[in-house]
Amino acid sequence: MYLPSCLTTISKNRFSIFYILLIVLLGLSHPLSAQNDWSGSGKSIDPFHYTILKSATFQHASVASAHPLASMIGAAMMQKGGNAFDAAIATQLALAVVFPEAGNIGGGGFMVARKTNGENIALDFRETASSKASRDMYLDKNGNPDMHLSQDGHLASGIPGSIAGIFAMYKYAKLPFQQLIAPAIALAEHGFVITAKEAHLLNATKAEFIRYNTKPNAFVKAIPWKEGDTLIQKDLAKTLMRISKNGAKGFYEGKTAQLIAAEMQRGKGIITLDDLKKYKADKRTALTFNFNDFTILGMPPPSSGGIIVEQLMKMIAHKPLLAYGFESVKMVQLMVEAERRAFADRAAYMGDPDFWKVPLKTLTSVAYIAQRMANYDSTKPTPSQQIKEGQIPEHEETTHISIMDAEGNMVSITTTLNGWYGSRTVVGGAGFFLNNEMDDFSVKPGVPNMFGAVGGEANAIQPGKRMLSSMAPTIVLKNNAPFMVCGTPGGTTIPTSVFQTLADVLIFNMSAEQAIAAPKFHHQWLPDVIFVEPNFPKNTIAGLEAMGYAIQQRGPIGRTEIIKILRNGARETAADTRGDDAVAGF
Ligand code: DON
């Protein structure tokens, strides 16, 4: 039983018929044909004809992700007896095929999960700097940064962590791994039809695909892509088959690793075979804190996301936001001042905890939070210190997955290549994009990165170190029982979007759909500007400007995916309307 709020259908009839024929020819053993009845609707998953379902209430289990095929595949795994971890693995692998701008095997990310037995899991599969990386590798001989090198092409990539992360998650899963990866292989091998947004993005990035690649790849074609075209990725299918057969070694060793090393040599990159072999995902301790009746679980460093969300929630904990009114001048001004202070801390104190002591307890302590807000003035801005301003570009292509299974296991994963299609370099013969995550390091103290974030010593480049992230996969319990899974992409806007989602749902009692629809705002200390979405209330903007705030309208902020348990136990599941994001479940 679901309540669709918006349906878009992507199809190519010729291929739809072809696909049904294909299923008949291959018999029911075809990996995608086996995933039928994903929503209780009796429909099978057809990669040549699918619908974008934005929001629905499911009785048992659900997935919200950036692409309908990936959500459906995740939900199908749970229907076949898998749990939330099986769904998470299958969804991520499918996203690596159907959402190539951010779904990935060449990037990294974080998972926060809560098992029904009460165990909290924080998994760090963030990329690391190569053993050949060095602190000043992006500075010229005069000490000036060349941000092009940290953002584009071979030198921009860290050692990918996603496949190590997937195998670390697999410990909690139930189904055979081959079953979880089979749909991704089929989608890469036989193709799927692309959405209008995907076609637009592929066309917009064509020149860069050509610039940063010397080998042919699936993403460049002579005539422009259009909605309904089929994207086939044969090289990627072969890479996924090696992973299916050999596990993590199918990526970090053998043929795939050799193809990565060869790609590095062609493009003067520095990732070595040894770097790949040594990569390990890490288990961390999830951050947990209470907010009224809720317990919030977040990701600790090397992401700044969890700490920032915790600081922000604590900074507003005793303020009457409900009385101020939703997105009133008073509410937004308070939240902006909190954001400014949290981001100033990010720049100074946060980095990879294996290399830098992050004062986690202090930063989130009641006394420290009180001290940070001591100079808060509800009548005017507290100006950020003046340093060179960074612009926040809008190519924000991370991706978030929220999953809840029938037993109540909850999984929240944010994963990324950093910018859209990462470094835009496809590993020749292996068919996947490498990340441009090196740009998340502080290339030089005070120099803004792609997201305008600044940093210093804590986040300086060192071999083997993880670059500081803002990703904030989040889980909320109510009276210690499952309540909500949420998260979003968006670079530095991630923790502020999660903060707003938590405020919307936990304070303003909004539904998942309402929280997603609410116009977002963002302040990150530097630049000293409040960024707002185009539909942000005009009278609030006018009120803030009258107080002395600089406001800048920008494009959409984030792509939030939310699953929230209703009073009757059903899962209200909502995917962001800002992209092709979709929900599935049963
Ligand atoms: O780890 C981070 O904070 C960034 N690399 C995330 C990038 C991102 O969210 C881009 N997209 N939406």
- Uncertain regions: pLDDT < 50 for 5+ in a row? 1-6, 13-42, 386-395
Q: Which molecules are bound besides the chains?
A: 6-diazenyl-5-OXO-L-norleucine
Mean pLDDT: 92
Please give the radius of gyration in angstroms: 22 Å
- The order of strands across the largest sheet is 3-20-19-15-14-11-10
- Percent strand equals 15-25%
> Biggest β-sheet, characterized?
7 strands, antiparallel
How many DSSP E strands?
21
Query: Can you count the helices?
Result: 20
Task: State the end-to-end CA separation.
Answer: 8 Å
Task: Based on the model shown, name its key terms.
586 residues; alpha+beta; 20 helices; 16% strand; disordered N terminus; binds 6-diazenyl-5-OXO-L-norleucine
Characterization of this structure:
With 586 residues, the chain is of the alpha+beta class. It has a domain at 7-107 and 158-279 and 404-434. Helices cover 34% and strands 16% of the residues. The strands form five sheets. The chain has a seven-stranded antiparallel beta sheet. It has a seven-stranded antiparallel beta sheet with strand order 9-6-5-13-12-4-21, with helices on one face. Strand 12 and strand 13 form a beta hairpin. The longest helix is centred in the middle third of the chain and has 21 residues, at 329-349. Residues 396-398, 416, 418, 437, 440, 469-471, 489-491, 494 line the site of 6-diazenyl-5-OXO-L-norleucine.
